[in-house]
Write the structure tokens for this entry.
Amino acid sequence: MSAPRLLFSVSGMMERAPFLFLLLLISSSVFPRRCISDTVTPREALLLRNEVREMFYHAFNGYMKYAFPKDELRPSSCEGEDTLGSYALTLIDSLDTLVLLGDREQFTCSVEWIGKNLQFNINKTVSVFETTIRVLGGLLSAHLIASDYATGMRIPTYEDQLLHLAEDLARRLLPAFDTPTGIPFGSVNLLYGVDEHESKITSTAGGGTLTLEFGILSRLTNDPVFEEVTKNAVRGLWARRSKLDLVGAHINVFTGEWTQKDAGIGTSIDSFYEYLLKAYLLFGDEEYLYIFQEAYGAAMHYLHNDPWYVEVNMDSGAIVWPLFNSLQAFWPGLQVLAGDIDPAIRTHAAFFSVWKRYGFTPEGFNLATLSVQNGQRSYPLRPELIESTYWLYKATRDPRYLDAGRDMITSLQYGARCPCGYCHISDVEHHKQEDHMESFFLAETVKYLWLLFDLAAGPDNIVENGPYKYTFSTEGHLFPATPQVSLAKEHCSYLGAFCWSGDMRIESPSMEAGTEMGKTNVTKFYGRDGRSSLASSTYSADHVSGLIKGSCPGLTHGQKFGISYIASTSPDIIYDHSNDHNEYSDGRIHSVIYNQGPDNTWIETEMKGNDIPVSDADKPQVHLDER
Ligand code: DMJ
């Protein structure tokens, strides 16, 4: 990652955003730093780690005693509530935290209970995003750990029950991807597929934060369909980026039109960026790295008002929301992974100054008025700032991050602890408690705190000491880079292309049935009637979509990337575009079709919406040499 450019000159910044300049000037006096003598000693780190462990069990035991097998705990009234799908959500989300804490007994009996009792053939409409990151991710992480000696937590009696559950669940989510853009619906019914009245509007994070879990599942089951649909969703989103390389917050999954054009790194978009980089880190798939580099560069150029980030209109770059929102706080942690530490340090300090001011971060803090944004006053036990604190401590070993962690523990213990767990804070100015405890409190918030102080005390956990590298999902789930996950060959896919894999030629989804690749037939799982409306009615034999596992000789690197950023529409797809002229208005959304010519050569044909010429400058460029 190249060093960040200086984004604004002082005068330029005053012109563009005077209130931010003012904030920059005064922030150090409004939110003074701790003095150095507060530094946490190694002995204190050990005590704090133990305190976090006690926090975990206070909440986990409260959940198990009063809420399990319901999804989440009402920590004040000591009751359970079903919030997502009625499938012991908090237990699934907690599995790998139990592993980190070395609680073999609870991990084993939890895995056994889930294997015997969990079922997904239920008439529930669930969020594709939340179900993926919390449930699918929790199951896969626990499976990878429980099935492998090298994790040190293998369960001898374990027989892949969680993997089978994960596969069953993911197949029930697949109907959501049956859209003209490839971007999934936000919700799907686990029994009946997508309801005909389901909203066609989804968030960018919702559509673009599925690649890790689905990609792992493909590599574990040898069925590329999971990896494929989620990669196409990312391509579908990225193909619709603005000329500034920004994405909006909400999009119509049928027309591909942005319905909310505010670009930012927080609410509704955050983990889209996160999974671009992490999918590259876990799978080594350079396509994700390429998109990440472009997306990150644009974010740092248009959204970064050092040390803060704002929301801008994705087309014009004009600031629309001068807000810090608490979901943005994962960004410094991501920057650590990207190797861009200096801006991460400054941004973390700014975000932490908000925490210090209120004892928690509000969902929204207005950078113009320097006050809590009305309607965004709560702190629902979010992990993001703690997550970034952990990554920055890991990268720098600067004790100020331990001081920050200690402050966060103090806030949680004095402000949020309630009889059976930890309560949401409904207003950070009055510290009023609310009777909810999101499952991510145990999956992420406590996990990152524990990891922070474990690292300082002399690490004793599988992430630091084990043989595998671990990628953390956006829900904090641990994905070990086992050979099966990380060294599997990339699954290739082509829209409108033939691809040779050995002597097997895949020409269309319908041709896959009955072949060895029949498992990959996308028609199999889509729709409530088990048929794909896309595959059955919208593809012709000439321009086809094929799912092929393995390497793809015959395509250059550039060709591979060239076909990566196309809208998943082609003239042969029977879909009424008469009203979506805007979709192609910037000329960026275009299809590049590779057909096989004589002598195994490849012929490139550009298919463009509304015949808008696409200049060379508009074509995706590969900048991998910049790494
Ligand atoms: C978690 O479910 C995940 O971290 C997600 O990416 C964002 N929201 C919550 C935590 O705030």
